[in-house]
């Protein structure tokens, strides 16, 4: 089972958001105590995320749930992923929250896996990482989804990494000297410098950063930066960022990028989860 990245408080929050005063329809119909069974299955091939959280949501509502396929699993169309049993009240209460979470998170995981597969078909050791552009308030869920798809987070927030943007350099009298000093000021961190052109990459080389992050460059642009770094004889990693997706990931890796930085999975289409609820 995947490591638990959520809290009981999050489960309570999700249920309370959808049913702050209970399930009015189920209660009014008088069917809350009827025995029920729910199954979830994928309508298309998918990489899963959120199934364990969904099981916890059913359990918190008062049903019994079994995970049939774990986060990170690649499942075929029609594959069952979760089964819940208990009274109709708890199952109907948790149903839509659990289904929607699995759909959104599996959509992100599936899109991530497509980028990872395309990149690693060219170089099995290339790193695929995602930006901090998660929807505010949902970071823990979206990061869990990209990890299920085989990627890792590039930056979880401003407090953890050194990434120098052109917007930072605009305030510096001597950008190369200031960037070079970062390695001494914060020695346990790697220094990443974002550049948007070959000329900026050439200027940044003087600071000997650990990583040159090339923003919105074409694969040919990445190839030129890689040649520049090779000619300098420095062990600087070249990362491609901005516009990286499943369709062009292989081209960026073939051009020499050792890291692909992407936000694309965060806007993935949700997966389609089929839910069947029957009397037990």
UniProtKB/TrEMBL annotation:
InterPro entries: Aldolase_TIM, ModD, NadC/ModD, Nicotinate_pribotase-like_C, Quinolinate_PRibosylTase_N_sf, Quinolinate_PRibosylTrfase_C, Quinolinate_PRibosylTrfase_N. The keyword Cell wall biogenesis/degradation does not apply. One of its GO terms (biological process) is NAD+ biosynthetic process. The keyword Glycosyltransferase applies. Pfam families: QRPTase_C (PF01729), QRPTase_N (PF02749). Residues 108-275 form the Quinolinate phosphoribosyl transferase C-terminal domain. Keywords: Glycosyltransferase, Transferase. Residues 23-106 form the Quinolinate phosphoribosyl transferase N-terminal domain. GO terms for molecular function: nicotinate-nucleotide diphosphorylase (carboxylating) activity. One of its GO terms (cellular component) is cytoplasm. Belongs to the NadC/ModD family. NCBIfam families: modD (TIGR01334). This is Putative pyrophosphorylase ModD. It comes from Xanthobacter tagetidis.
């Amino acid at each position: 089972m995947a490591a638990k990245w959520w809290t009981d408080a999050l489960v309570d929050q999700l249920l309370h958001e959808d049913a702050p005063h209970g399930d009015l329809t189920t209660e009014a119909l008088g069917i809350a105590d009827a025995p029920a069974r729910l199954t979830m299955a994928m309508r298309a091939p998918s990489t899963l995320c959120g199934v364990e959280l969904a099981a916890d949501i059913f359990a918190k509502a008062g049903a019994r749930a079994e995970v049939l396929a774990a986060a990170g699993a690649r499942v075929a169309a029609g594959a069952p992923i979760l089964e819940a049993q208990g009274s109709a009240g708890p199952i109907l209460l948790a149903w839509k929250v659990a289904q929607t979470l699995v759909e959104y998170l599996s959509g992100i995981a599936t899109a991530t896996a497509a980028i990872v597969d395309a990149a690693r078909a060219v170089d099995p050791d290339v790193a695929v990482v995602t930006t901090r552009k998660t929807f505010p308030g949902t970071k823990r869920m979206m990061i869990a989804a990209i990890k299920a798809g085989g990627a890792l987070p590039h930056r979880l927030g401003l407090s953890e990494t050194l990434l120098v943007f052109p917007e930072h350099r605009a305030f510096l009298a001597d950008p190369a000297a200031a960037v070079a000093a970062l390695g001494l000021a914060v020695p346990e961190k790697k220094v990443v410098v974002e550049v948007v052109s070959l000329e900026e990459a050439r200027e940044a080389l003087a600071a000997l950063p650990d990583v040159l992050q090339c923003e919105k460059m074409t694969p040919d642009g990445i190839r030129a930066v890689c040649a520049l770094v090779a000619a300098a004889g420095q062990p600087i990693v070249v990362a491609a960022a901005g516009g990286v997706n499943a369709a062009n990931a292989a081209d960026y890796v073939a051009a020499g990028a050792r890291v692909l930085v992407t936000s694309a999975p965060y806007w993935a289409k949700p997966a389609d989860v089929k839910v069947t609820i029957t009397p037990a």
